[in-house]
Design a protein that fits this description.
globular; alpha+beta; four-stranded antiparallel beta sheet
Length: 162
Amino acid sequence: MTEQMKLAIPVTLLICLLMAATLSAADKGAVAVPANAKCPVCGMFVAKYPDWSATVRFKDGSVFYYDGPKDMFSHFLETARYTPGKRQADVVGLTVKEYYSLESIDARSAFFVVGSDAHGPMGSELVPFRAEKDAVAFKLDHKGKRILRFSDITLQTLKTLN
């Protein structure tokens, strides 16, 4: 084995390990919130509350960050109010943090517990779960009132949380 080959093996191994770590973080849906990101609904600095962070991504590549699912839904349901010139139809991605794993998950496929004793940075919150069984267990353990899907959440639902 030549010296070049002996050097190439550790370098290749290092590259593979770095790629695996990167893919692992992507699989978990890690979303890095910029330190200066402010919630367009309430004005809070989102990075202070990483466990509750949520995002909306638009076709044009712009991303908005929220200190909780409740504010993300407020923006989504009233897109033009919070981002003039943008439409709900321009939204291509919505993420929320799964309560137990803290992984970012697609908000459209999540199960949300409403009326529990768990509060986010802005008080009462929609508590998101990837699996229905986890939402059911959480609802029982934390005095939740209902489990909702994405399409069930309306402005009226959000008003009951304030």
